[in-house]
# Entry
Amino acid sequence: MNSIERSLQQNCNCESVIVEDRAIGIQFNKQDGFSNSKLDITLINPSYSSSAEKEANRLNRILKKDVENYNSIDFVTFYFKSDDSTETVKIKDGNIL
# Structure
């Protein structure tokens, strides 16, 4: 288990955490623009009291504090996945898109 997964499991009220699609190198797509490093995080059956955007911001702040070199990742996508829905929150350079 890597430090990102460990930190999320300690700070996220969810069934499980999947960290995948870590891509390094210049990438471009029409919707999200340019990025240099990318990370996808899926949180299975999360429980949070506010919105998915606020929870993604909270977790992003924790990861910046807890995980060495996390700030070098410029594009993070959080997927909040439950049995009946999936919410997606994209964070680029620390800002929600």
